[in-house]
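1st attempt posting a full record on here, be nice pls
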Amino acid sequence: MPTIAPPPLRPADLVAIVCPARAASHAELAAAVATLEGWGLRVRLGASTNVAQHQFGGADEVRQHDLQLQLDDPEIRAVFCARGGYGTTRIIDGLNFTRFAEEPKWVAGFSDITTLNCHLLARGFQSIHGVMPLLFHQEGGAESLESLRRALFGEALDYAVPAHPLNCFGTATGELVGGNLSILQTLTGTASDVSTAGRILFLEDIDEYLYAVDRMLVHLDRTGKLAGLAGLVVGHFTNPQDNTIPFGRTPNEIIQHYAARYNFPVAHGFPVGHEPRNLALVVGQPVRLTVDESGASLMKGFISTM
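the predicted structure (as tokens):
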């Protein structure tokens, strides 16, 4: 069955900002609120904003109740996760998507919010992997913010990136799946796990040790997550760490070592992840990936159901 895309946003729609993971204050979110209002939207700051329990945006019960409230409210047309960090997996199993399924809405975020992106995809709903309110105005992030706006308002998202020496040529169509590598591994075997078969997987991460990147790729491969892929898109692996004795491969080389066992196109150097250039991707959307001598392109594609 094809995934369900929530309706595009329209001027005067009401949207909510919540903190399912780390805390964010109203002062930290003020510029993002102004931006959303500049897009013609009305903004509600949820009860999980401007509160904190240690690193979290309030206790688990606060974050879960706030997110549930915004997911259920028919007037809310999109839910923005203020920031990532850690915490979404602590509350995801307590959420109920029955009312959400009656009137789906856009949910947007990345990093730790990969949990929510995957949980929605496992239930047949598209969501947006994109820049979060706390990062709306980071230096060099204007293109990322505009891509998020385009995704939310139903405008075309067609991307082209330069050639990369590790690319594997080919063309593939499939639904987008993926996000943060460490979160994807954490979700394996849970109610938020998603199938990658016949889909185009995208990966990104930050601050991971090189051996840990290798370990996670071994795990994805052993659990069959790579074998059935239609294609692979490799994003930013920001600030990789190494031991005193070097691991000997970069994150891209590690990924390519395992991807080379199969026969699908691979596009390295795609601008998605923990850097200012973090272009919005619609998780669950059918896309076409083309990789050739000139580089790689990713655009909304048609998948035959015959």
